[in-house]
Amino acid sequence: MGDKLLARRAARELGIPVIPGSDLVSGLAEAVSAADKVGYPVLLKAAAGGGGKGMKIVTGPAQFATVFNEARGEARAAFNDERLYLERVIVNARHIEVQIMADSSGQAVHLFERDCSVQRRYQKIIEESPSPAVSDRLRQEICEAALTMVRHIGYENVGTVEFVLDQDEQEFYFLEMNTRIQVEHPVTEMITGVDLVQEQLRIAAGEPLSVGQDQIAYSGHAIECRINAELAESNFRPSPGAIGQWQAPEGEGVRVDTHCFPGYLVPPFYDSLLAKVITLGSDREQALGRMQAALGQFKVDGIDTTISFLSSLLSHDDFSSANINTRWLENNLLP
């Protein structure tokens, strides 16, 4: 599953829809030919990719050579693997991912879906569960597709099967699988009450899952905001340095996962993530209200953070009404 080309092939064999695109493109001419067949705009992607590395949109033939070389160079630098393929860009898309668990006895379960459509440079900023864009029928179909994939490959771990939802056509496509726990796993824990990290340790120890599919249900709505040491108003400039005051929010339905404390030195070498704030409400409106209150209670000085940016994003009418897609943030709120 770490090789996106092999993952796409497995999905096709199982009858799971994949985004129209190509197999491996060995050079520029082959990539251009594939793009002509798929139709512009297309997204060049690294076969060994992740984290948005080696991903570039091409809007037409004139820019293809430049963007192709950029994507290949970025993939080589990030993964020591310059292989690329391409996919058609779905303009009005949601990023939907299904949390799964599977043990050594062959038992596999899903824990419903997360919506991770608020993104910048293919990096998630806000996640929520359940998705406000997914109907009960679509939820059942997409979760069953995820389990079909997991069972087919004999997966044993927690993990996430990711899909793109075309909101105009109400069709979903397999995107990739992340064979690990993810940053946004707490929203699933909050609505299901299942401790995913504990389950992962049980699986690693050769023990069976502690819950079956008929025991897993969700209640309420959860939202997660990633707090980063960045200045959003200055093109998300990194802000390493010593934290002075650090006071995290508390309250009903509020969870904060963090490694930070007063005096902690934020290094310049790694991901700038400082904390995850997760709120749970009886519905999306209450979860949003609790998140706004939690962000308002956060007190951090000595470094810049994305707290105020997140607060303004959450208050935007489009987000409040769930009228967004994966390009919404970059097209509407960023320069």
Short description:
This protein is of the alpha+beta class and 335 residues long.
> Which runs of at least 5 residues are low in confidence (pLDDT < 50)?
none
Mean pLDDT comes to 95
How many domains, as an integer?
3
- The CATH architecture of the largest domain would be 2-Layer Sandwich
Coarse morphology: globular
Description of the structure:
This protein is α+β, with helices and mostly antiparallel strands and 335 residues long. 31% of the residues lie in helices and 28% in strands. An 8-stranded antiparallel beta sheet has the order 8-7-4-5-6-9-16-14. It is globular. The two termini are 35 Å apart.
Secondary structure elements and pairings:
Elements: H1 4-13, H2 28-38, E1 42-46, E2 56-58, H3 64-79, E3 84-88, E4 93-102, E5 108-120, E6 123-129, H4 136-153, E7 157-166, E8 171-178, H5 185-192, H6 196-204, E9 221-228, E10 230-231, E11 237-238, E12 241-242, E13 246-247, E14 254-258, E15 265-266, E16 273-281, H7 284-297, E17 299-300, H8 307-314, H9 317-320, H10 328-332
Antiparallel strand pairs: 1-2, 1-3, 4-5, 4-7, 5-6, 6-9, 7-8, 9-16, 10-11, 12-15, 13-17, 14-16
